[in-house]
Amino acid sequence: MSEHPTCCICLDTFSSPTSLPCGHCFCLACIGEYWRIHGVCQCPLCKALYPTRPQLKTDQTLLSDDAAVPLKAGEVPCDFCTAKRQAVKSCLVCLASYCDIHLEPHYQSEDLERHLLISVVKNLEDSVCGLHGKQLDRFCRSDQTCICAMCSQTDHRGHHIVSINKEAAKKKVKLKRRKMKLKQTIQDRLSKVEKIERSVNLCGENSKEARAQIKEAIKELEEEISELQRSNAELEQLSQTEDSLHFLQVCITGASH
Which residues lie in coiled coils (predicted)? Predict the structure, then answer.
C-alpha cells in the first residue's frame, strides 16, 4: 500500500475521496464527472450499475496532506472558502468557482448536478454570454467579437466563426510582428538621438539659437521613444496572457479605442 492512496481516474492523490456502495473509492469530482460524461451511474472498476444515483459522501480520513497549501501565482481562489483554497471548477450557472470541498453539492444534489461545470476561469462573468448564459468559446471574425454556441446559431449564423484558441493564436502572431516593428522604430529613434548628439559635439561653434533648436529636437525624440517603450511594454504584457478568451477581449477593447 502506498503512503498516499491514489484515485484510479485522475491517478493522483485523493481529493475529497468518496466511496461507492461497491466499496471502491474515487475523488468526488472524478466520479461525478465520470457519471456526467457517460450518462450512467457505474463503478469504473467493477462496472457495478446503480439504477438510482447513490448518495456520495466524502471520507475525510483520506484527504490529501496538501489540502491547505497556499495559493500560487495565477491560481484562482474558491469563492466560498474563508481560508481561500484553490478552486478546481467554475460553474456557469452559479457564476462561482469552487474548491474540491465546496464543489461537493454539485455532485450530490440532483438540481445542482445539472449545472455546467468548466475548468477554472479567473474572470468568470466575462467568460459567459450575457444573452444566453453560455460559455464564450467561439470567435466571430465577421463581427470581431466573442460568442457562445447559441450565438453562432442565431445572431451570427452564416458568419465566419472559429474557436477562441484558433483566433487567439492568429492574433498572437500579428502581435509578435507589431512588437518587432515597434522595437525597430525605437532603435531608429535612439540612433537618431545619438547622431544628433555626436554632431553637436563635433560642431561646438553652433549659435545659441541653433543649440536651443537641437535641444528641443532631442527632447521631442526622447518623449517619442518613451511613449514607444510604454506601448512595447503593454504589448509584451498582453503577449504573455495565457487565457485565450481574456487575450481576445483585451485585443477587442484596445482596437475599439
Answer: 165-241
User: Do residues 85 and 101 make contact, with C-beta atoms less than 8 angstroms apart?
Assistant: yes
17-66, which class in CATH?
A: alpha beta
> In terms of Cα–Cα distance, which of 139, 142, 93, 101 is closest to 118?
93
Domain boundaries along the sequence of the chain? 17-66, 164-255
What pLDDT digit, counting tens, does each position of 112-139 carry? 877 878 777 777 778 888 888 788 889 9
Task: Write down the mean pLDDT value for the chain.
Answer: 82
3-state secondary structure the chain: CCCCCECCCCCCECCCEEECCCCCEEEHHHHHHHHHHHCCCECCCCCCECCCCCCCCECHHHCCHHHHCCCCCCCCECCCCCCCCECCEEECCCCEEECCCCCCHHHHCCCHHHCCEECCCCCCHHHECCCCCCECCEEECCCCEEECHHHHHCCCCCCCEEEHHHHHHHHHHHHHHHHHHHHHHHHHHHHHHHHHHHHHHHCCCCCHHHHHHHHHHHHHHHHHHHHHHHHHHHHHHHHCCCCHHHHHHHHHHHHCC
